[in-house]
């Protein structure tokens, strides 16, 4: 039995595969490479990703290298040896292009312009080209092969189907119902022209609780047959009437109107307290602004002033008390010694002088008392 050949995916990319890859990336994005590769029979997900990132991405720069870019490439290769992915990101070019340009620069310095050949011709029969994703696509022949035609037809069918399976099924069912309705309407018209009247068939209910809005009354509540039973209402009315009679017999008809209840008193008291607190918080509850709390103006009786006579009498009485207190040891407080007499401008000096004399006498008396 001959050995079964092992087919390995890969190889040179064709123009058809490149176009299918571009269309698949537009639909599935740059993260679902397994779906993208399912449209390509001879390529894997990894190969599709490399082809897009190394050749088909429109952001890549394939222009010729300038002298500044050559100098930058040599410096980066010296600083980051064998890190071509990092160098490619910094140069904004594919990694394989950077490698090939670096090899050409080295060869041009050694052999004076001869460049390394990295094309397909260097490969032997049976070898796999490792850099196929970075090379140009193979141009199409006049007629496509059968495999390519099948792959292209399948990709076109899948990419053009922008709706899911459920959406397509719903559309198909809706179109079928519309065609049935039009056929039924045409049939009724023909029968009516022939003189046969046919009633419209009711559509089959999907559920038992479906409502036909043409015939049924939506959410109708039909009354019960017979006379309406009022026995429960009569019992409730009789019970309330008995409660009212007991209340009248206990308190009378106007028993609660004359006497304010305790609950009403508590409510009134709380209302007054809350009103007083609110006025105090707003600065409105003062004796000057409240009409009911203004103090009455009390004036003294008209007549002559007796301030001088009363002042002398008080002073003489204080002196007598001080002399009597020497035996018992009781001393008057400073507030009780000399009452102030406001409004007596003529006797100010005499009052101050007498007050000073009295204070000096008190000091002497206290010193003698504590010394003894």
Automatic annotation (TrEMBL):
Domain HTH myb-type: 1-60, 65-110
GO BP annotation list: mRNA splicing, via spliceosome
GO function term, MF aspect, one: DNA binding
Cross-referenced SUPFAM superfamilies: Homeodomain-like
Biased composition (Basic and acidic residues): 245-263, 271-281, 337-351
UniProt region (Disordered), positions on chain: 245-286, 334-357
Cellular component GO terms, alphabetical: Prp19 complex; spliceosomal complex
Myb-like domain: residues covered: 9-56, 57-106
InterPro entries: CDC5L/Cef1, Homeodomain-like_sf, Myb_dom, SANT/Myb, SANT_CDC5L_II
Keyword list, A-Z: DNA-binding, mRNA processing, mRNA splicing, Nucleus, Repeat, Spliceosome
Membrane spanning stretches: none
Family: Belongs to the CEF1 family.
Protein's name in the database: Pre-mRNA-splicing factor CEF1
Gene field: K7_CEF1a
